Amino acid sequence: MGYRTRVRRVTNLDNRSQDSAPDLVQLLAGEELLTLADVAERLDLAITRAYDLLNDRKFIAWRSPEGTRLVPASFFNDKGSINKYVSGVITVLSDGGYNDEEILAHLFSADDSLPGRPIDGLQGHLAREVIRRAQAAAF
């Protein structure tokens, strides 16, 4: 009667085992990682506004094994703002069924066809190609 059923989209993620997912600790090992307080300082915002941006999915955070939420510094440009393409890729992959860890793995895993990693492509002229590939991967 008044019940709504939620349709779950089957994606290529459903066929992956947890063992095949790259280890985020290794993928993020060489990255500069920021706490949310660092993010607020970098963006010149109050800490509560940094939490709002996180909740609005303008960027995502990785929860370290110690439990601290960390944000890769490569999500931000040298002008002190969030890279607009990062938010776009997060949205596209989230809509396609990726969770935050899978999004981070996608962005920080090497892709020989790009060349490099998708996160590096978002900083330069490959940004539109990275987003196009994210759309293809997500659906």
From TrEMBL:
Question: GO terms for molecular function, please?
Answer: DNA binding
Q: Where is the DNA-binding protein Rv2175c wHTH domain?
A: 27-76
Pfam families from the UniProt entry: Rv2175c_C, Rv2175c_wHTH
Domain of life, per UniProt, equals: Bacteria
Rv2175c C-terminal domain boundaries: 85-138
Spell out the InterPro entries in the cross-references. Answer: Rv2175c_C (IPR041098), Rv2175c_wHTH (IPR048576)
User: Protein name, please?
Assistant: Transcriptional regulator
